[in-house]
């Protein structure tokens, strides 16, 4: 009797087949079933890829799950004697083939991401991972997996786009600040020269008068820039809420003509507006600002004896408003840039007589807020046409009340009115306190929010109105300080925020407290008018 030791290894003798239905046959069948289940339930798809000695590729095994994962038919691919890689995206196909050849040549692991196209045309990203081994025949075989990495690639693309947007925004911000700094420094420098002229011992009365007038012009220039910057900041902050009402475009155009015609006549430019117009549903103030900026832009670039025309017409269920000029025109390559802040085509020297380069940036922001499409057609040397296409719903509407910020007018005494002022800048606090007292008000001034609180705890009568800077010498904003005083007196005391802050987040915060916001520098008449309006609204 032979033992296992007596049997020659690798004799090639086959073991007798197990009887059908035996435990061994059942075990083999169960193992096969388990293996199939294991293969099909892997998180990836199994792939056996072969590079034959004659240079052709083929696939000897592909998981059936490829059909569900990528929309690829594994049987069709395995039937190809020479794999044509037609399922690989055309833009990736050659790179995929070269990566396989490099892996086969050096027997280095394959780790490659590329796009594949399913039978229904769906494009997905696949990561192919495999370890190559060379057979005695010279063929190279990769046993590996194919993973669906579409979500990862989409996330990476979104991150790249976000990074590019952030970099673009950062570059635009730097450019914006550089231009703003330049335009602010110019009038400041001029003011210093005017002040030096006033301070000179031998300055004549006429020279002093010219210097004072020059100082006034510088202040006007700085105020125009700051107001434009503020308009952009408020629009970007989302604190401007359109008030939709029925707007008579003819009346709007007539009011604009009354404002613009003296400026146009001074430059010998003809300015034409329609005698009558349509009625649309829109924000009157924002639409006026939009048109004003377009007309002022046309004035800057139209020569003497030129012409500017405003036209309005209905078309395709929408209303079109066009501002056309016969000025210098804009090259096609520059037309997208003109809506960027501080960009002025043909004004590289930054001549402030041609404005600040913010008008069209404001136009773009207002049009987005009102869902108005802005179209530009221009030819260098022949002029430009800016067309506003109002949305379909901007049909005849119902008149609404003008926004409160436009209601107040200057005038009226503040005699006997108690006003509390929170201002941590001593120069501003002193000058404003004196001004309020000249207007007849009783003023209590505080430099900190804590002093504001102390006034409330003192037991005296509540103020009729509070004015506060947005930034204070504490963690609380001026709005929060006003809110705390209101709580102390248990009454909604009217309040005004007077600030030079343009931070969008901080501007939005003030809406919570229902406060009016004025931005420094503010004209005294505007402040007085708003104070009267707030007091009258509180008494109503």
How would you describe the overall organization of this protein?
With 540 residues, the chain is an alpha/beta fold. The protein has 4 domains: 39-148, Beta-Lactamase (2-Layer Sandwich), CATH 3.30.450.20; 162-237, Orthogonal Bundle (Helix Hairpins), CATH 1.10.287.130; 244-389, Histidine kinase-like ATPase, C-terminal domain (Heat Shock Protein 90, 2-Layer Sandwich), CATH 3.30.565.10; 407-539, 3-Layer(aba) Sandwich (Rossmann fold). 42% of the residues lie in helices and 20% in strands. The protein has a 5-stranded antiparallel sheet, with helices on both faces. Helix 5 (150-199) runs antiparallel to helix 6 (205-237), helix 6 runs parallel beside helix 9 and helix 8 (284-300) runs antiparallel to helix 9 (359-369). The longest helix has 50 residues, at 150-199. The radius of gyration is 38 Å and the shape is elongated. The model is unreliable at 1-25 and 396-411 (pLDDT under 50).
What's a concise summary of this model?
The chain has 540 residues and is of the alpha/beta class. The protein has helices at residues 23-40, 66-70, 74-78, 93-106, 150-199, 205-237, 249-266, 284-300, 359-369, 426-438, 449-457, 478-489, 504-509, 524-539, and strands at residues 45-51, 57-62, 110-117, 123-134, 140-148, 244-248, 270-272, 279-283, 307-315, 318-325, 373-379, 383-389, 418-422, 442-446, 465-468, 495-499, 516-519.
CATH homologous superfamily assignment of the largest domain: Histidine kinase-like ATPase, C-terminal domain
Structural class: alpha/beta
Q: So what's the CATH class of the largest domain?
A: Alpha Beta
What's the alpha carbon Rg, rounded to whole Å? 38 Å
For the termini, the CA-CA separation is 120 Å
What is the number of E strands? 17
Let me know the largest β-sheet: 5 strands, antiparallel
Biggest sheet: strand arrangement = 2-1-5-4-3
The quaternary structure here is single chain
Outline: elongated
Strand content: 15-25%
| Overall mean confidence score, pLDDT | 81
Helical run tally:
14
CATH topology of the largest domain: Heat Shock Protein 90
Regions with pLDDT < 50 over 5+ consecutive residues?
1-25, 396-411
**What's the domain count?**
4
CATH architect. name of the largest domain: 2-Layer Sandwich
Give the proportion of residues in helices.
Answer: 40-55%
């Amino acid at each position: 009797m032979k033992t296992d030791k007596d049997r020659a290894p690798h004799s090639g003798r086959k073991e007798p087949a197990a009887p059908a239905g035996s435990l061994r046959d059942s075990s083999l069948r169960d193992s096969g079933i388990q293996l199939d289940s294991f293969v099909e339930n892997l998180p990836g798809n199994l792939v056996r890829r072969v590079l034959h000695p004659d240079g052709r590729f083929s696939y000897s095994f592909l998981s059936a799950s490829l059909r569900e994962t990528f929309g690829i038919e594994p049987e069709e691919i395995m039937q190809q004697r020479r794999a044509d890689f037609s399922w690989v995206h055309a833009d990736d196909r050659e790179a995929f083939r070269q990566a396989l050849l490099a892996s086969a040549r050096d027997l280095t692991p394959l780790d490659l991401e590329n796009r594949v196209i399913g039978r229904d045309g769906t494009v997905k990203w696949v990561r192919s991972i495999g370890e190559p081994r060379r057979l005695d025949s010279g063929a190279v075989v990769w046993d590996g997996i194919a993973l669906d990495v579409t979500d990862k690639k989409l996330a990476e693309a979104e991150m790249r786009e976000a990074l590019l947007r952030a970099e673009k925004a950062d570059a635009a911000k730097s450019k914006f600040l550089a231009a703003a700094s330049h335009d602010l420094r110019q009038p400041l420098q001029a003011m210093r020269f005017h002040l030096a002229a006033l301070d000179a011992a031998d300055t004549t009365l006429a020279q002093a008068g010219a210097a004072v007038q020059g100082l006034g012009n510088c202040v006007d220039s700085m105020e125009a820039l700051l107001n434009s910057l503020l308009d952009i900041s408020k629009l970007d902050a989302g604190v401007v809420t359109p008030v939709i009402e029925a707007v008579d475009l003819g009346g709007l155009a007539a009011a604009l003509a009354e404002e613009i015609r003296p400026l146009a006549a001074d430059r010998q430019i003809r300015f034409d507006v329609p005698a009558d117009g349509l009625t649309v549903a829109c924000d009157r103030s924002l639409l006026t600002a939009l048109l004003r900026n377009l007309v002022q832009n046309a004035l800057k670039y139209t020569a003497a004896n030129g012409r500017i025309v405003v036209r309005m017409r209905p078309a395709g269920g929408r209303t079109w408003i066009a501002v056309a000029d016969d000025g210098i025109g804009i090259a096609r390559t520059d037309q997208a840039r003109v809506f960027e802040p501080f960009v002025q085509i043909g004004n590289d020297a930054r001549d402030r007589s041609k404005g600040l380069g913010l008008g069209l940036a404001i136009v773009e922001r207002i049009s987005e807020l009102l869902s108005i499409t802005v179209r530009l057609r221009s030819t260098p040397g022949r002029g430009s046409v800016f067309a506003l296409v109002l949305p379909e719903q901007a049909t005849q509407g119902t008149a609404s009340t003008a926004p409160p910020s436009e209601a107040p007018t200057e005038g009226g005494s503040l005699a006997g009115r108690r006003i509390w002022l929170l201002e941590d800048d001593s120069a501003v606090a002193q000058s404003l306190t004196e001004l309020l007292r000249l207007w007849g008000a009783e003023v209590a001034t505080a430099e900190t929010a804590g002093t504001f609180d102390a006034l409330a705890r003192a037991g005296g009568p509540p103020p009729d109105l509070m004015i506060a800077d947005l930034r204070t010498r504490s963690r609380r904003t001026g709005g929060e300080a006003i809110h705390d005083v209101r709580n102390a007196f248990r009454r909604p005391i009217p309040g005004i925020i007077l600030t030079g802050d343009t931070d969008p987040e901080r501007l939005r915060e003030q809406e919570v407290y229902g406060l009016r916001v004025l931005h420094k520098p503010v004209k005294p008449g505007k402040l007085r008018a708003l104070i009267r309006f707030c007091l009258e609204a509180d008494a109503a």
